[in-house]
Amino acid sequence: MKLTSEKQMNKFHLGISLGLLLLVGLICFLTGRSFLSLHQEEPIFPSAGLTRQFRLSHYLPNLSHTPGDTRVYLFEGQEKGGNILILGGTHPNEPAGFIATVVLIENLKVKKGRIFLIPQANLSGFTHNDPFEANPQRFFLPARQGIRWFRYGSRLTNPVHQWPDPTTYTNPAGQKLAGTESRNLNRAYPGQPKGSLTEKVAWAIIQLIKSENIHLAIDLHEAAPEYPVINAMVFHERAAELAAMALMDLQMEGFDFRLEASPPNLRGLSHREWGDNTSALAVLLETANASHGRLKGKPSVALIVEGRDNNYVRAAKLGRLFVPYDERGIPLSRRVARHLAAVKTLASYLGELFPHQKVEFSDYPSPQELLQQGFQPFLHSPRQER
Ligand SMILES: [Zn+2]
Q1: At 220, which helix (H) or strand (E)?
Q2: Is residue 376 in some structural domain?
Q3: Which domain holds residue 349?
Q4: Ligand 1 center from residue 17 Cα (angstroms)
Q5: 382: preceding bond cis by omega (within 30 degrees)
Q6: Ligand 1 is a single-atom ion; what residues have CB below 5 A from it?
Q7: Domain CATH for 94
Q8: pTM higher than 0.85, yes or no?
Q9: pLDDT digits (tens, 9 = 90+) for 151-172
């Protein structure tokens, strides 16, 4: 009798164990599938003004077929002029830079000079999203036809693509940093052709700047509202005059930028190493993004797109922030409008200071249009559907 009940108990435990095993297997399958889905690139629909689209490995062949081989878009005018490079997505959890470049790519027409755009500078960083931050994997914006999706990634290269991190990281410029920073593209300049994936990407970007004779290079970022270097225009010393002139115009337009000189001893950052290692004028722009701040409440798609968070309203009232912040928040459209306003003004003063480096472009939304109409009229669907 006792033996039978023991057998039944064993069967019962076996059943529970198999059930749990199946449940764990199912969770692994679903989370694995969700994780791998982040490797799918979001579609970008370039305007008819696009001259050529290619990959960054054009400048470093051994980057080819790696997760760092990101898309490059070239818009070339009929007339010769200056050359500008604009980077979004150096940090894939800072969507304003990424979306500003997408809006340009989908609307731009260049009359004079050339504009190179890299919307996802650290492409690997778009394939994961810091699980402990509980951020959504994607966010959504209204487009001309329907809704478009974009990935919200991580500040760092995916550890699946670059592992392990060293205990301390000495970057190619000789700066010692925490080990995780070895996966931060904006600490990896000037890069190394046979270095880590992140260093190869940095090296290829430097090669692009050199071989395409880039005159002005702009790196678009965002920062938490409690971070002191916010709403900033960080400039390499050779770009000081350009940045100062642009700043005055932007302030008159109602965009409150603050100028920050690139610290000469902070090595590996774009504004420092682009300026020191190439002849380009280098500028980095920051906007305020509540969705990657430390004070934020629950992460959500709405927080990324609308930039509204009650914790930040409270922090602003306590004087803890470095930007004005109220119940209206700081929406993505306003952050992208700031970036586009700065790009336009910097490009315009490049031509004023150096007439042979003039770049003329049109057909992209003005900051006012973006503020009033949002993204919908400026994000497209496949060309044949327009
Ligand atoms: Zn950044």
Answers
A1: strand 216-223
A2: yes
A3: 38-385
A4: 46
A5: no
A6: 91, 94, 221
A7: 3.40.630.10
A8: yes
A9: 999 999 999 999 999 999 999 9
